[in-house]
């Protein structure tokens, strides 16, 4: 598939003040316009070439702002690849730039292969002949590395899961195919819409699960964004200090460029925590008070983990209960602090409010219970028993993109079923799902369907 | 001793299903054509199943017809029943299948060949090819006749070094005890072709008088008259039924107890058999949990008592076959007329062919059918048509034709063969086609008639009719896209009666038709067309509108690949000169010698990185040329 529109992060991985996502190809402007909300409804396709524009990247599905950006719009041929090029300048940090890339991939762009921008520059005559050999070396070198990586992952858990899932789909496909190619064989049950829907929703769930695990994979690399909440004076600051001092900080004090958030990274038993709004806690000891309820809710929704701190030596207040409400449905660990003082809190009520969440009691002052808390964090995270190092950055972005596409394909298949579209037509989307999953593990050989057909069913004259 | 026997544009060796299409195509497009067959009584003979069509295969027959071939017309004249299969499924997989009167099928085909002005049909056995300077220039027969030509098409079926295996018996033979072709096989090897040994088989035939049909289920043909050919106007209404019965535990035990006498398991058979056409002993061994297997009893014609026992292909000894048959309900007293047997034969490795079906080793030499590793009459006929067409075109110095995977099942078939090769007799399946929604049974004429016309195989009269049909489809589609249907009570009633939800607002007729519960007839009821349209026009309108979204998706897929299809690889490319190709890819590319980047990408063992490198290499040459100019 040459010359479709490709996208990739073009700045080095890691932390920097800005990061650039580059998009190149016929559809670069169209895809960018699907996501870009400029000032006054400005469309990139209408702007003058080689100009730069302020705006936001929006997730068209949720209509939520994903990132605040500056976008350079450059029409071919006066660009690096000689194609239409869009460069999206994001705030530094892997999370935001990754989110923008994901959105582009979900909206029609393909993740660029290693060296592909350079390859295009060459193919479109931008780079001269003497550089051709270098381009080839580049492709080969990068691909070999990618291949080694892929091989490493072939033995990995992800690969096994994908293979299992593909086998499920393959069995459905073989079943549908056999109904088509051998319509008179009564040995084979006719695949019905009902059966197809049932099997497809299973596949869909599994893909969603995989996407969740890849979220966890992402967390391993980028940190589990964590917010400490609680009324004033419950010991949030002590908790923060305890976590930071007990554990070696990975990165400290990276000022964000838009959000007034200072982040601190700590490593808790192998789980990297990115502590959000630590500045707020340091300055006022009270995030709710300082930035208002609305804003604090927003910070909460961005968090992967909430550490909710209560005071052992004080009665539960309405404010405590409000906080419980605010974090409903999230991953929360309840910390009842100050056990060194006399108990005034009603632990039964706390347990009632905590529901299924983990609950630990601490005396941060006396360094009691911190182990329990760390254990709780680690077990919460490793419940899915995701191991660090299972996925690497580049291939993982590719995996997520492919999984998302596979999810779309299976969704379309299911919509087709619900519409009453004939099964053999619905199957087009099902096959697509199977192929996309195959791309993740580098295996899309069509022949295996035919093998499946003949091993699963007894056919023939 | 040899003698000069004549000169032709094209010589076709063999007159089976591939041979007849090759000979007719070549002759009809203007090449003076000679057909030579071992036995004139075996023209278009059906050595196995007396049927034509079925899923994927039936679509091939339609494609052959759209390209001016004969198979569809011939079966329309000679079938004993016809059925449309998969009617409960989507339009992409519907397929017509006919049971043939195998004797009249042959006679009709022979008559057609005999009456073709530009075609000479003779009996003889070709033993050698005349190859000079790497070009094929004619053939020499067993009797020493030397025929010269500009191109040769070989369609030898299972005759090439054929060997029949029946129980403990094995002897040199073509199908149905015909004389095999041994010397030609040796000659092909001398010319440097790689040959492989394949195997196929056929079930016993039994006498209809000895069948108790009351113990079987009737399988009638469709009530609606059907035809393969777009030109057929006369329909056969007097149809014969087939009958269904089953094997049982007793059958399976009998087979199990006699496996030691099966040549399949004793090691006597070495050739690779097709998985989709297993013998009964194979089915019993591999699927031993199945309590029964279906057996279809199919009459071989109107003037014979011979009945084909579909599902019971076997090479077990004759006495065991007798006993097996008699365990089956309805066949308790059956009289077996011919025993089933397995046949081994030589095929050439099909990656030795260009997509035109010309061999890479010897110019102007084409092969088609089972010699290319396929199985099935329809697969053979499709290749025969293309090989004959290309041999004819080449002999007339015209440009040859390659069908792409998005043009036709025939394109899928040939591309699979020449790009991937095959390690078992190849059969077309709908699952082999990635664009099957585009390659439908109903639109074969829309896909291929223009090409047929261009090469000279479609008459002016037929082409005019085709264009009128095409125009009618477009006009009706445009009409439905232009009309708004308002939510009147009549409309709401109709929708409700079909179980749909009521309209909230006016809707385009075409959009209403897209609803799963609505048919063209319903729309017609609401907004009638001025003139009544032919059923094949309205069928197209309905399918094209109803499945527009999916068709569009497939077309986009084709479009994306087109760029790679259009990147041609020069024939003289030196793969050893390209740095960075993986060694497996290099070796495969040298073997297959793909014509386009897309074809290269379909070769197993050639991965995307190799394609990138190949692309860069090709562009390097282009850029060098441009800068030199």
UniProtKB/TrEMBL annotation, chain A:
<feature type="binding site">
    <location>
        <begin position="233"/>
        <end position="238"/>
    </location>
    <ligand>
        <name>GTP</name>
    </ligand>
</feature>
<dbReference type="InterPro" id="IPR027266">
    <property type="entry name" value="TrmE/GcvT-like"/>
</dbReference>
<dbReference type="InterPro" id="IPR027417">
    <property type="entry name" value="P-loop_NTPase"/>
</dbReference>
<protein>
    <recommendedName>
        <fullName>tRNA modification GTPase MnmE</fullName>
        <ecNumber>3.6.-.-</ecNumber>
    </recommendedName>
</protein>
<dbReference type="InterPro" id="IPR025867">
    <property type="entry name" value="MnmE_helical"/>
</dbReference>
<feature type="binding site">
    <location>
        <position position="461"/>
    </location>
    <ligand>
        <name>(6S)-5-formyl-5,6,7,8-tetrahydrofolate</name>
    </ligand>
</feature>
<dbReference type="InterPro" id="IPR004520">
    <property type="entry name" value="GTPase_MnmE"/>
</dbReference>
<dbReference type="GO" id="GO:0046872">
    <property type="term" value="F:metal ion binding"/>
</dbReference>
<keyword id="KW-0630">Potassium</keyword>
<comment type="subunit">
    <text>Homodimer. Heterotetramer of two MnmE and two MnmG subunits.</text>
</comment>
<keyword id="KW-0479">Metal-binding</keyword>
<keyword id="KW-0342">GTP-binding</keyword>
<keyword id="KW-0378">Hydrolase</keyword>
<dbReference type="GO" id="GO:0003924">
    <property type="term" value="F:GTPase activity"/>
</dbReference>
<keyword id="KW-0963">Cytoplasm</keyword>
<dbReference type="Pfam" id="PF01926">
    <property type="entry name" value="MMR_HSR1"/>
</dbReference>
<dbReference type="GO" id="GO:0005525">
    <property type="term" value="F:GTP binding"/>
</dbReference>
<feature type="binding site">
    <location>
        <position position="257"/>
    </location>
    <ligand>
        <name>K(+)</name>
    </ligand>
</feature>
<dbReference type="GO" id="GO:0002098">
    <property type="term" value="P:tRNA wobble uridine modification"/>
</dbReference>
<feature type="binding site">
    <location>
        <position position="237"/>
    </location>
    <ligand>
        <name>Mg(2+)</name>
    </ligand>
</feature>
<dbReference type="InterPro" id="IPR006073">
    <property type="entry name" value="GTP-bd"/>
</dbReference>
<dbReference type="GO" id="GO:0030488">
    <property type="term" value="P:tRNA methylation"/>
</dbReference>
Automatic annotation (TrEMBL), chain B:
<dbReference type="GO" id="GO:0002098">
    <property type="term" value="P:tRNA wobble uridine modification"/>
</dbReference>
<comment type="subunit">
    <text>Homodimer. Heterotetramer of two MnmE and two MnmG subunits.</text>
</comment>
<comment type="similarity">
    <text>Belongs to the MnmG family.</text>
</comment>
<dbReference type="InterPro" id="IPR047001">
    <property type="entry name" value="MnmG_C_subdom"/>
</dbReference>
<dbReference type="InterPro" id="IPR044920">
    <property type="entry name" value="MnmG_C_subdom_sf"/>
</dbReference>
<keyword id="KW-0819">tRNA processing</keyword>
<dbReference type="InterPro" id="IPR040131">
    <property type="entry name" value="MnmG_N"/>
</dbReference>
<feature type="domain" description="tRNA uridine 5-carboxymethylaminomethyl modification enzyme C-terminal subdomain">
    <location>
        <begin position="545"/>
        <end position="616"/>
    </location>
</feature>
<dbReference type="GO" id="GO:0030488">
    <property type="term" value="P:tRNA methylation"/>
</dbReference>
<keyword id="KW-0963">Cytoplasm</keyword>
<dbReference type="InterPro" id="IPR036188">
    <property type="entry name" value="FAD/NAD-bd_sf"/>
</dbReference>
<keyword id="KW-0520">NAD</keyword>
<dbReference type="Pfam" id="PF21680">
    <property type="entry name" value="GIDA_C_1st"/>
</dbReference>
<feature type="binding site">
    <location>
        <begin position="14"/>
        <end position="19"/>
    </location>
    <ligand>
        <name>FAD</name>
    </ligand>
</feature>
<dbReference type="GO" id="GO:0050660">
    <property type="term" value="F:flavin adenine dinucleotide binding"/>
</dbReference>
<comment type="function">
    <text>NAD-binding protein involved in the addition of a carboxymethylaminomethyl (cmnm) group at the wobble position (U34) of certain tRNAs, forming tRNA-cmnm(5)s(2)U34.</text>
</comment>
<feature type="binding site">
    <location>
        <position position="126"/>
    </location>
    <ligand>
        <name>FAD</name>
    </ligand>
</feature>
<dbReference type="InterPro" id="IPR020595">
    <property type="entry name" value="MnmG-rel_CS"/>
</dbReference>
<dbReference type="GO" id="GO:0005829">
    <property type="term" value="C:cytosol"/>
</dbReference>
<keyword id="KW-0285">Flavoprotein</keyword>
<dbReference type="InterPro" id="IPR049312">
    <property type="entry name" value="GIDA_C_N"/>
</dbReference>
<dbReference type="InterPro" id="IPR026904">
    <property type="entry name" value="MnmG_C"/>
</dbReference>
């Amino acid at each position: 598939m040459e010359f479709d529109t490709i996208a990739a992060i073009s700045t080095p991985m890691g932390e920097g003040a800005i990061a650039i996502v580059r998009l190149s190809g016929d559809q670069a402007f169209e895809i960018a316009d699907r996501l870009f909300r400029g000032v006054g409804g400005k469309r990139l396709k209408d702007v003058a070439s080689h100009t730069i524009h302020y705006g936001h990247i929006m997730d068209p599905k949720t209509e939520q702002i994903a990132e605040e950006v500056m976008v350079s719009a450059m029409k071919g041929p006066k660009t690096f690849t000689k194609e239409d090029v869009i460069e999206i300048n994001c705030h530094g940090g892997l999370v935001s730039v990754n989110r923008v890339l994901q959105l582009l991939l979900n909206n029609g762009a393909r993740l660029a292969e290693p060296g592909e921008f350079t390859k295009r520059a060459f193919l479109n005559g931008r780079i001269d002949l003497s550089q051709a050999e270098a381009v080839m070396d580049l492709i080969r070198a990068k691909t070999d590395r990618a291949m080694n990586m892929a091989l490493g992952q072939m033995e990995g858990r992800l690969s096994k899961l994908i293979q299992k899932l593909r086998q499920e789909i393959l069995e459905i496909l073989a079943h549908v195919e056999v109904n088509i190619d051998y319509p008179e064989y009564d040995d084979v049950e006719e695949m019905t819409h009902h059966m197809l829907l049932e099997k497809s929703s299973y596949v869909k769930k599994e893909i969603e699960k995989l996407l969740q695990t890849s979220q966890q994979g992402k967390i391993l690399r980028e940190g589990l964004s964590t917010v400490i909440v609680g009324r004033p004076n419950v010991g949030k600051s002590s908790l923060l200090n305890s976590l930071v001092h007990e554990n070696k900080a990975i990165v400290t004090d990276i000022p964000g460029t838009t959000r007034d958030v200072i982040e601190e990274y700590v490593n808790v038993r192998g789980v990297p925590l990115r502590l959000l709004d630590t500045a707020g806690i340091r300055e006022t000891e009270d995030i709710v008070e300082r930035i208002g309820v609305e804003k604090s809710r927003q910070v909460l929704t961005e968090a992967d983990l909430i550490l909710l701190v209560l005071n052992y030596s004080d009665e539960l207040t309405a404010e405590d209960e409000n906080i419980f409400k605010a974090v409903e449905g999230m991953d929360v660990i309840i910390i009842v602090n100050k056990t060194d003082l006399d108990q005034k809190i009603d632990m039964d009520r706390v347990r009632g409010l905590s529901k299924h969440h983990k609950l630990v009691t601490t005396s941060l002052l006396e360094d009691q219970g911190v182990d329990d808390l760390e254990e709780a964090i680690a077990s919460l995270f490793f419940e899915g028993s995701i191991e660090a190092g299972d996925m690497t950055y580049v291939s993982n972005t590719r995996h997520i993109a492919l999984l998302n596409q596979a999810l779309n394909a299976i969704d379309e298949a299911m919509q087709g079923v619900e519409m009453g579209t004939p099964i053999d037509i619905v199957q087009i989307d099902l096959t697509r799902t199977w192929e996309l999953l195959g791309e993740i593990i580098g295996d899309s050989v069509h022949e295996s369907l035919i093998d499946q057909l003949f091993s699963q069913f007894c056919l023939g004259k | 001793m040899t003698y000069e026997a004549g000169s032709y544009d094209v010589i076709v060796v063999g007159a089976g299903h591939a041979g007849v299409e090759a000979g007719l195509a070549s002759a009809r497009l203007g090449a003076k054509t000679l057909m030579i067959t071992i036995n004139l009584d075996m023209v278009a003979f059906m050595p196995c199943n007396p049927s034509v069509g079925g899923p994927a295969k039936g679509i091939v027959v339609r494609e052959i017809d759209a390209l001016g071939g004969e198979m569809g017309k011939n079966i329309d004249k000679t079938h004993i029943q016809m059925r449309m299969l998969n009617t409960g499924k989507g339009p992409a997989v519907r397929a017509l299948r006919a049971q043939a009167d195998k004797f009249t099928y042959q006679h009709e085909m022979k008559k057609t060949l005999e009456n073709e002005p530009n075609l000479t049909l003779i009996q003889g056995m070709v033993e050698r090819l005349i190859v000079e300077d790497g070009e094929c220039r004619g053939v020499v027969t067993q009797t020493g006749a030397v025929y010269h030509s500009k191109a040769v098409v070989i369609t030898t079926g299972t005759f090439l070094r054929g060997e029949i295996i029946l129980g403990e018996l094995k002897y040199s033979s073509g199908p149905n005890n015909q004389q095999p072709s041994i010397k030609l096989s040796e000659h092909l090897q001398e010319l440097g072709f790689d040959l492989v040994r394949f195997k196929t088989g056929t079930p016993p035939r039994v006498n209809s008088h000895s069948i108790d049909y009351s113990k079987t289920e009737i399988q009638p043909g469709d009530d609606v008259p059907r035809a393969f050919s777009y030109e057929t106007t006369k329909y056969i209404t007097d149809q014969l039924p087939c009958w269904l019965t089953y094997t049982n535990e007793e059958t399976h035990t009998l087979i199990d107890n006699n496996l030691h006498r099966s040549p399949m398991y004793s090691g006597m058979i070495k050739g690779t058999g097709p998985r989709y056409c297993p013998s009964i002993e194979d089915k019993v061994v591999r699927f031993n949990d199945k309590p029964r297997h279906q057996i279809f009893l199919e009459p071989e014609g109107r003037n014979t008592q011979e009945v084909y026992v579909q599902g019971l292909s076997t090479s077990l000894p004759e006495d065991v076959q007798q006993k097996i048959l008699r365990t089956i309900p309805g066949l308790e007293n059956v009289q077996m007329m011919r025993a089933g047997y397995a046949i081994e034969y030589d095929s050439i490795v099909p990656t030795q062919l260009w997509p035109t079906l010309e061999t890479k080793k010897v110019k102007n030499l084409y092969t088609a059918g089972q010699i290319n590793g396929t199985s099935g009459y329809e697969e053979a006929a499709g290749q025969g048509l293309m090989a004959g067409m290309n041999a004819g075109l080449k002999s007339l110095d015209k440009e040859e034709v390659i069908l792409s995977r998005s043009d036709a099942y025939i394109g899928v078939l040939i591309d699979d063969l020449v790009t991937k090769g095959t390690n078992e007799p190849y059969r077309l399946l709908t699952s082999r086609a990635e664009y099957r929604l585009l390659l439908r049974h109903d639109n074969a004429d829309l896909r291929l008639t223009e090409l047929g016309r261009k090469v000279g195989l479609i008459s002016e009269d037929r082409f005019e009719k085709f264009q009128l049909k095409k125009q009618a489809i477009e006009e009706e589609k445009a009409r439905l896209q232009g009309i708004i249907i308002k939510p009147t009570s009549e409309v709401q009633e109709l929708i409700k009666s079909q179980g749909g939800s009521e309209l909230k607002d006016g809707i385009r007729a075409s959009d209403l038709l897209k609803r799963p519960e609505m048919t063209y007839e319903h729309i017609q009821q609401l907004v009638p067309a001025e003139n009544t349209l032919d059923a094949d026009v309205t069928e197209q309108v309905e399918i094209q509108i109803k499945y527009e979204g999916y068709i569009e998706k497939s077309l986009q897929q084709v479009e994306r690949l087109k760029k790679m299809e259009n990147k041609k690889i020069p024939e003289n490319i030196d793969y050893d000169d390209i740095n960075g190709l993986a060694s497996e890819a290099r070796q495969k590319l040298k073997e297959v010698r793909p014509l386009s980047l897309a074809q290269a990408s379909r070769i197993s063992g050639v991965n995307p990185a190799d394609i990138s490198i190949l692309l860069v290499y090709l562009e390097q040459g282009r850029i060098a040329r441009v800068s030199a100019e």
